Amino acid sequence: MDVIQRNLLKLIRSGAFSEAVSLERMSEYKWRRLYDIVEREGLSEWFIRGANSHRKDEDLNIPDHLIQEFRARMAAPIALPDKRQSTKLCSPGGKSRFNTIIASDEAEEHSETSEMFRLIVSNATDYLSYGIRLKSIIELGKAIRQDNGDVDYDLLKKWLRQIGLTGMADLQGSLLVDALNFMPEDVPFMVRKRKDVLSLLFQSMADLEADLSSTLLESPFQADNFPARSLRYRRFSSLESYSHYAACVANRISNVEE
């Protein structure tokens, strides 16, 4: 990680989870680059909270005029779509089993477990379509921290296994550990800690920057713009990754024919 990425994660951990962190001094250019990421990723609320909690920290050397610029940009944020409304599982077996699970009496009896299940699955399908968003990991971390013992994690792991998303859940758990400093034992649904997940997170951030600045994309948030990106996640769920890739390619061919 470079200094921008390190300070980003530190400030977000401070703002979202009240973690005490030690920041590193940066140039005005790098602070602006950091806030560019914050803005694109929809993290302004947690960034401001983190910055406010360290306002007496000498290493939070953001010039006053830059703070005013950030506040002005917060008043007119980038419009990002609610992607979860348009994402779904693509493998026929996984889609069918998911629908069966959420419609079951067992899911109704374990509503908190069902909500956590839906969140993890929604994140997984978002990653295949649009890449990893740090905001989704923060929301998952908050859901875990706010659980008062109502989530049945054994049942949750069983459901994830039935739809073939244990690996994608492990990816999310590993991001909680590597990006947000969770302890592995604080992520009860994670079966195995996965390696090299931060590189996927930062690659997704770079992709979003490129997509938003591209003049070639009619819509930067169209799921089938870059179908091959879903194959980055094949080591976590090969069936769903390849199914999503095939669905995106088929959709693009269909659009060309029209």
Describe it.
- The chain has 258 residues and is mostly helical.
- 62% of the residues lie in helices and 0% in strands.
- The chain has helices spanning 3-17, 28-41, 44-53, 64-74, 92-102, 105-109, 111-130, 134-146, 153-162, 166-180, 197-213, 238-257.
- α1 crosses α3 (44-53).
Query: Count of helices?
Result: 12
Q: What's the number of extended β-strand segments?
A: 0
Helix content estimate: 55-70%
Output the structural class: mainly alpha
> How are helices and strands ordered from N to C?
HHHHHHHHHHHH
Shape: globular
CA radius of gyration is 19 Å
The proportion of residues in beta strands is under 5%
Mean pLDDT equals 86
Q: Determine the N-to-C terminus distance.
A: 44 Å
Q: Give the low-confidence spans.
A: none
Main β sheet profile: none
List key phrases describing it.
258 residues, mainly alpha, 12 helices, 0% strand, globular
Quick structural gist:
The protein is mainly α. It has twelve helices and no strands.
Summarize the topology.
Blueprint: H1 3-17, H2 28-41, H3 44-53, H4 64-74, H5 92-102, H6 105-109, H7 111-130, H8 134-146, H9 153-162, H10 166-180, H11 197-213, H12 238-257
